Amino acid sequence: MKEKTQRPISSLFFQVCLLCSVFTEHTTNAEFTVSQNGPLTDFEAQYIKHRQLLYYRDEFGENVNIDPSMVFESNRIKNAYIALQAWKQAIISDPFNITVNWVGPNVCSYTGIFCAPALDNPKIRTVAGIDLNHGDIAGYLPEEVGLLTDVGIFHINSNRFCGTIPKKFNKLKILFELDLSNNRFAGKFPYVVLSLPKLMFLDIRFNEFEGNVPSQLFDKPLDAIFINNNRFAFELPNNFGNSPVSVIVLANNKFHGCVPASIGNMSNLNEAILMNNGLRSCLPVEIGLLDNLTVFDVSFNQLMGPLPEIFGELVNLEQLNVAHNMLSGSIPKSICQLPKLENFTYSYNFFTGEPPVCLGLEEFDDQRNCLPNRPVQRSAGQWKVRDSIIS
């Protein structure tokens, strides 16, 4: 006999049976295989979508059988077992057999699962961390993952997880590192992350998220934000500068508008990568207030105007990339004299002046500008095209 959570029979029961019969028939008549490399087939994607929707309608543990003979060292470990078994059921391809030993009540021995004493009771072991990075696992995240309430680190980058982020993620109240990067998640920005009070590190890059990024994200006490290489399309909000992050990477999305002047309030900022978006207008002089900035990349945008002289006060700056914009005027001498500057890329702009000191930098690129007596510069015709664009 096995113990299973029960609920009244409803129309959902018949929906589940119908879906299972359809899936069984399909897999009987045509083998159900999952591509371990490359995109999912239409059938695989549709199956995942249907299964995730069914799980969303279920309560925690509805789909997990628990053998009465199993002995768990605590209720928290039992909850973790339910969560991990539900997750295992949601996996349709595990080419490296990472989850093959996800069997039995000793969840602390499962591959990729790490246990530690509970923060509120050191006498109890709990699941404190998950690391399935580079597993090439295909599947989705079931709502039961919300039972892992003691997890502080959740890393599943470089897999093939798809669907959306479960709403029950809001139960992970002590989660401080969330890495979902390089997967196939889609839909709107996962708003559930805004309800995680301890979150410090957010990495959702290289997915298929789209639409707006909520302004509330920049009011969160995060240390690192990586949302690059998605399909986000929005304008950086005025409260952008409220963020206390040390690293922010927004590259390769579809932004528009300006870099807010509030960026000057980001006193902790070390690295800012805003490349290849739709940023327009001028670079705000407030950037010169970022004393701790070491890397600043706004290349491949549509920025105009001069390079602010105050950038010469960024005494910790090591890498500056403003290439592939429509910037003009002269390069400020003070920038090229920055004591730690190692790489300065300002190619593919319309600069007309360049102090000799810039030519002595360890690495620099000044090609495709309008600089006299320098090789590989723009033609006069290209100058006129630029003037017609900004006029």
Topology:
Layout (H helix, E strand, L loop, with lengths): L10 H19 L12 H16 L17 H15 L1 E3 L19 E5 L7 E7 L6 E3 L12 E3 L4 E4 L13 E3 L4 E5 L12 E3 L4 E4 L12 E3 L4 E2 L14 E3 L21 E3 L6 E2 L13 E3 L4 E4 L13 E3 L4 E5 L2 H4 L6 E3 L4 E4 L9 E3 L14 H11 L1
Parallel strand pairs: 3-5, 4-6, 5-7, 6-8, 7-9, 8-10, 9-11, 10-12, 11-13, 13-14, 14-16, 15-17, 16-18, 17-19, 18-20, 19-21, 20-22
Antiparallel strand pairs: 1-4, 2-3
CATH top level of the domain at 251-391 is Alpha Beta
Instruction: Output the CATH homologous superfamily of the domain at 251-391.
Output: Ribonuclease Inhibitor
As an assembly, this protein is single chain
Shape: elongated
Structural class: alpha/beta
Main β-sheet, in a few words? 12 strands, mixed
Q: What would you say the CATH architecture of the domain at 251-391 is?
A: Alpha-Beta Horseshoe
Instruction: Tell me the strand percentage band.
Output: 15-25%
Mean pLDDT: 87
> What's the alpha carbon Rg, rounded to whole Å?
26 Å
- The low-confidence parts are 1-36, 52-58
CATH topology grouping of the domain at 251-391 = Leucine-rich repeat, LRR (right-handed beta-alpha superhelix)
Q: What is the ordering of alpha helices and beta strands?
A: HHHEEEEEEEEEEEEEEEEEEEHEEEH
Question: How many distinct helices?
Answer: 5
End-to-end separation in angstroms reads 79 Å
What is the number of beta strands? 22
Helix content: 10-25%
Identify the strand order in the major beta sheet. 2-3-5-7-9-11-13-14-16-18-20-22
